[in-house]
Amino acid sequence: MVDLISNQKIARCIMENLVNTFIERFNRYNAAIGKYIQIINVNDDLGMQDGPQISPASYRKMVKPYQKRLYQHIKKNSNLYLFLHTDGSVYEFIPDFIEMGVDILNPVQFTAKDMGLEKLKKEFGRDISFWGGGCDTQNALPSATPQEVKKHVRECISILAPGGGFVFNQIHNIQADVPPENIMAMYEAVKEYSY
């Protein structure tokens, strides 16, 4: 992270080698199993709870060119949907993701700054699918009652599902402190409220 600012030559060298490795790895996977799958997942956590990990200017100068090279290679050489996992507040980067060919955003951490579901659906719902955002795993799932979890899930589904482009998933992994009855309430709500 420091090298992105203080030693950009090293940062570029690292990212150039990484992207070359990722492209070669994709080529091997695609040759072996590409005809059997529909989605390819790339991971690149760029957000924190209160904003991006790096400034949009640094991202666009130092990171995006390498992501774009990889993502466009994937799109050019396959018919796979490109699934990007990136936690946190990434609102400012979503237009970049769309422009680079990302089809699916995960985990849709709406508890982070600027990541409100209504805003995301309205601004980007025609251009990218949301795979996540179905239930808050930081607050609602571990702390709410089962009835509150169901209500919460219904609200999330009612925002993200209309018009398509939504795959239900809780924001992130379910942690050990979540009561089992809340997990069941979440799944029951999905069955009851899915469109």
Write a compact overview of the structure shown.
With 195 residues, the protein is an alpha/beta fold. It has eight helices and seven strands.
C-alpha Rg, in Å? 18 Å
What's the number of helices? Answer: 8
| Oligomeric state of the chains present here | single chain
Q: What class, by secondary structure content?
A: alpha/beta
> What's the story with the biggest beta sheet?
5 strands, parallel
Low-confidence stretches: none
In terms of DSSP E residues, the strand content is 5-15%
Succession of helices and strands? HHEEEHEHEHEHHEH
- Rounded mean pLDDT score: 97
Ends: how far apart? 42 Å
Strand order within the widest sheet? 1-4-5-6-7
| Helix content range | 40-55%
The count of strands amounts to: 7
Task: Tell me, briefly, the overall form.
Answer: globular
